[in-house]
Amino acid sequence: MTGTTLATRRAPALGSPARRRTRRRGRRILYWVATHAIAIALAIMFLAPLVFMFLTAVMSSNETLTGELWPRSWHWSNFGTALTTDHGVMLHWLLNTLLYAVLATAFMLVSSIPVAYALARFRFRGRKLAFVLVITTMMLPPQVTIVPMYIVWARFHLTGTLWPLILPMLFGDAFSIFLLRQFLVTIPAEYADAARVDGCGEFAAMLRVVLPMARPAIAAVALFQFFYAWNDYFGPLIYTKPDSWTLAVGLSTFRAAHHVEWNLTMAATLLTVLPVMVVFFLAQRVFIQGVTLTGVKG
């Protein structure tokens, strides 16, 4: 009887401040869930495959052949096995992918930034036509030009390597030129004019004044190109030989060789997507800023 009386005294009354705070907190949680219901559903849709890959990657080979979703024991060594199996060929694919992604991104920036600056700042005859031609090339799928381009690179004896995918970036990228140009036209021309008054040439004004202000857009196009090169499957499949395979192509052969060992396949897949996820989360602020601040000014 005494215990019941003490429990009754300790429990908050129906209209007590503690009970009211609990109800307000519950309403806020329900309101937040209702407001972000679509975002929560989309987050679950995108995260569910990654969670499934991770759980499968740390299972044993026998567990992956069952219907269990949660591993009985965690086999972290699967990631090391995926990297070192087949004489460490996955590490070789990783180096090829880094070579492709880094050089293609660097060459794209070197070639696309001056073109975008010229289309945004210079006034010359045919400027609008040149801009329309740049936009038109964005509508042309690579499958249309793959046969003549392959013949051209074969005559230069570059097929079987990654150079047919890297060297074209020295001639600019249509999407990057478009995005950079749209950002550069939003920067007031007075900044470059003041630099010219101080004795800077056009190239120095672009390099020292305009480009530092366009860092969000430059970071955005660099990330776009890096992600495209990292995930590119069609180009390396057409042009490269096994010694020059990237992770995207090599992963398909890895899956064929280890089609029963789903834990190793999922571990290799997770190791493939993890670097781009880390790069995106580290640079997401400047990436989103570069995309959202890109103007549509003509």
TrEMBL record:
Keywords: Cell membrane, Membrane, Transmembrane, Transmembrane helix, Transport. It is found in: Cell membrane. Pfam families: BPD_transp_1. One of its GO terms (cellular component) is plasma membrane. CDD domains: TM_PBP2. The chain crosses the membrane at residues 29-55, 98-119, 131-153, 165-184, 205-230, 262-283. One of its GO terms (biological process) is transmembrane transport. Its main location: membrane. It comes from the Bacteria. Coiled coil: none annotated. Residues 94-283 form the ABC transmembrane type-1 domain. Residues 1-20 are annotated as: Disordered. The keyword Repressor does not apply. It is a multi-pass membrane protein. The keyword Ligase does not apply. Belongs to the binding-protein-dependent transport system permease family. PANTHER family: ABC TRANSPORTER PERMEASE PROTEIN MG189-RELATED, ABC TRANSPORTER PERMEASE PROTEIN MG189-RELATED-RELATED. This is Sugar ABC transporter permease. It comes from Actinoallomurus iriomotensis.
